[in-house]
Every structure is written in C-alpha cells, then in structure tokens.
Amino acid sequence: MPSEKQIVDAFEKVAADMPGFMAASLVDLESGMTLGLKSLRPDFDLAAASAYNSEMVKQKLKIMKALNIRTNLEDMLLTLGDQIHVIKIIGPTTFIYLAVDRSQSNLAIVRNVLNKNVAAFS
Predict the structure, then answer these.
(1) pLDDT of residue 1
(2) Phi and psi of 20, rounded to 5°?
(3) Residue 98's closest CA among 24, 18, 7, 19?
(4) Would the N or C end of the chain have less CB density within 10 A of its end CB?
(5) In this predicted model, what pLDDT tens digit does every residue of 52-93 receive, in sequence order?
(6) Distance (Å, rounded) from C-alpha 44 to C-alpha 80?
(7) Residue 32 CB coordination number (10 Å)
(8) Which domains are present in the chain?
(9) 108-118 pLDDT, tens digit each
(10) β-sheet bridge partners, residue 96
(11) Phi, psi angle pair for 107, to nearest 5°
C-alpha cells in the first residue's frame, strides 16, 4: 500500500494529465475512509463522497453475488449533466473515486489516464 504522500503525488500526475479534473480519492472499501485525495474544488466534499461511494460499490458486489455473476467488478461510471464520475476498483479493498468536468473531458480520456496511472495506487 502506498503512503498518503505517494497517493497525493499520483493524483497530482492524474490531475495534470486529465482535462477537467475536479477531484479524486483513494478509498478503503470497507470503512469508506479516504487514504489520500486531491481536489481542485473546495466545495466538493470528498470524504462524504468516498463514504457514500463505498456503500454503492458494496451494494453492487452484493448484487453480483446474488445473481451469481462470477467475474470481477472493474469500474463503475456515473454520468451527470455536467460531470463524469468513475469508480475504478484497484484491489479487493480499495478503489479510486474520480470526478471530472464533462465539458472538458470524456470517458475515453478518463479511462486512459486512470489505466496509465493505476499502478501507483497498488
């Protein structure tokens, strides 16, 4: 597990490579706690968003189990009118939560930048 400084440094790189970057956090799935974060918007409560998104991931995993879906959850996409939110599963206990401005970025860019930098969060 990377240190908090390594996580923040990795998010700095993601932010520099991603147009429209708003905020991102590395989240512990079980507790919903942020392990490191970067935000360009002070009004974006990453602690609350991370906690709520951990509940959403847990529910999706329960649904997959109930439906006997035998594959891995890779990511979850939420599109809002002006934002794209992506949850990228890093391992069995962590995920990245990322929000970008939809007018400045697109899903292909988001996935490309995340996939290029995902190793820094493992």
Answers:
(1) 83
(2) 80, 10
(3) 24
(4) C
(5) 999 999 999 999 999 999 999 999 999 999 999 999 999 999
(6) 15
(7) 18
(8) 4-121 (3.30.450.30)
(9) 999 999 999 99
(10) 26, 88
(11) -60, -35
